[in-house]
Amino acid sequence: MTDVTHDLARQLGRQAEAVCRHYLSAGRRQGHYWQVGDVRNSPGRSMFVRLTDTAKGPAGKWTDAATGEHGDLLDVIRESRGLLNFTDVVAEAQAFLRLPPISPDAEAPHGGKQCSSRDPVISARRLFAAAEPISGTIVEAYLRTRGISALHETGSLRFHPRCFYRPAAHGPIQPLPAMIAAVTDLRGRIMGIHRTWLAPDGSDKAAIATPRRAIGHLLEHAVRFGRVDDVMAAGEGIETILSLRGVLPSLPTAAALSAAHLSAIAFPPGLRRLYIARDTDPAGNRARDSLIARANSTGIEAIVLSPTLGDFNEDLRAFGVDALRAQLRCQLAPEDVARLSVTSP
């Protein structure tokens, strides 16, 4: 972190409660902490922001017990406002603090050459490197229980037999089997990972409070399957996206992992048409509308793919491959039906 950003984070920490009331208005104070659903200002109680300096750390530091994400108040400003460029985060922080604008050569954290061993991006890369390919593992078994049998170009997924799970911020650690997904930028660099802890036989997710968690930097990035040319599909969940791949095997896809991250996903160079595999809930509808507006503003055609049930994995499991193929065939642009290997049932 540069001197400028370090100083901004420190000044924000001095006004931690005011920052939380402004940017995390869905939460409320609980003792020495601000409690809210997540860093994107969702209602809930899993994220805690420290409001005063303590022996555990300075004011402004936060942890989301549900996802494992953590950071400072600059991260709160970035995520709650959906800012894509770190210079915009600096400007927003300066405006909140009523500081005169300056023009530092500020870089986002992890943009420089020196990184701490506690850097979440480094931790994510190490965990992914320690995992193994999914072929013949319980990750493959788990996906098949979800009706997903087309596992081509799934190098972004790996299996870890003993991935640590901590049920609470200071609770005991449990080593559990997990599916590890690489979250990458448009250059293919791992910027984070997503963990899905699994039952020992792969029959379902593990019977724990939060079987899905992510670490690292997810904004703009995604779990990617296939190489993008001029057409791709983007959606929220890994299982949703892999369900599409089973019917549209030539369609490159990206799983953004949440509605908020889907709305901010980066567009690859040369992208001409974007299929949005939406989830049918209020958050999915908001992500759809935001992504359509962003795509149209850059000259990209956006086409929404709508499931019958909650998402396309639910449709796949309820109705089968042939029905999902027929359902999607009539939603595609006519020129994509043949090129994406969609055949009649």
From TrEMBL:
One protein family per Pfam: DUF7146
The Toprim domain, residue ranges: 232-320
InterPro entries, per database record: DUF7146 (IPR055570), TOPRIM_dom (IPR006171)
UniProt superkingdom: Bacteria
Domain DUF7146, residue spans: 123-225
Coiled coil: none
Name of protein: DNA primase
Annotated organism of origin: Xanthobacter flavus
Lineage of the organism: Bacteria, Pseudomonadati, Pseudomonadota, Alphaproteobacteria, Hyphomicrobiales
